[in-house]
Amino acid sequence: MHQPVEFRIRPSMPADTAALVAIWHAAVCATHDFLAPQDVEDIAVMVAEDYLPHTEVWVVLDAAGMPRGFMGMSAANIDSLFIDPACHGRGLGRALIGHARSISPRLSVDVNEQNRQALGFYQKMGFVTGGRSATDDQGRPYPLLHMHLAP
Q1: Could you tell me the pTM of the whole model?
Q2: For residue range 47-61, what is the model confidence (pLDDT) as tens digits?
Q3: What is the distance of C-alpha 16 from the center of its chain?
Q4: 108-112 and 77-83: which strand pairing?
Q5: How does residue 105 score in pLDDT terms, banded at 50, 70 and 90?
Q6: Residue 1 pLDDT > 70, yes or no?
C-alpha cells in the first residue's frame, strides 16, 4: 500500500489543460489496455481539443501544487475521473469521490466493463451496477456499466 500524499482540490484553470491531458494519457495507458490504439488516439484528440479546454473539472493537486488527477461532473454524474498512475492507491480518487458526494449525494458513473481497476474502485466507493450498454457513448465496442451509489 502506498503512503497517502498531501493534496487539495480546486476547479481547473486553462493553464491546467496540458498537465491534465498528460494525466489522462498516462492513466489510460495504465488501465485501458482493452482499447484499440486508434481509439486511444481518437479519444485523446477529443479529450485534448474538445473536453478539457472547454470543461471545468475538479483538479487534485499534490503538496507542491502539481496536478495529479481530475474529475469532471455533469450534475450528479461523474463524467471523468483520472489519476496519475504514479499516485494510484494514495487516496486521491477517494478524495475526488468525497468531493463529488459533497456536491451531490446521489452520484452515478459509467465505467468501461473491461476496466477492472476502475470497476473495483467504484465498487469500493459504494457504487453498484444498475445497467449495461453494449457499446460506449460513441458506439465503439467497449461495454459500459451504469453505476450509482447504493442507497
Answers
A1: 0.92
A2: 999 999 999 899 999
A3: 16
A4: parallel
A5: confident
A6: no
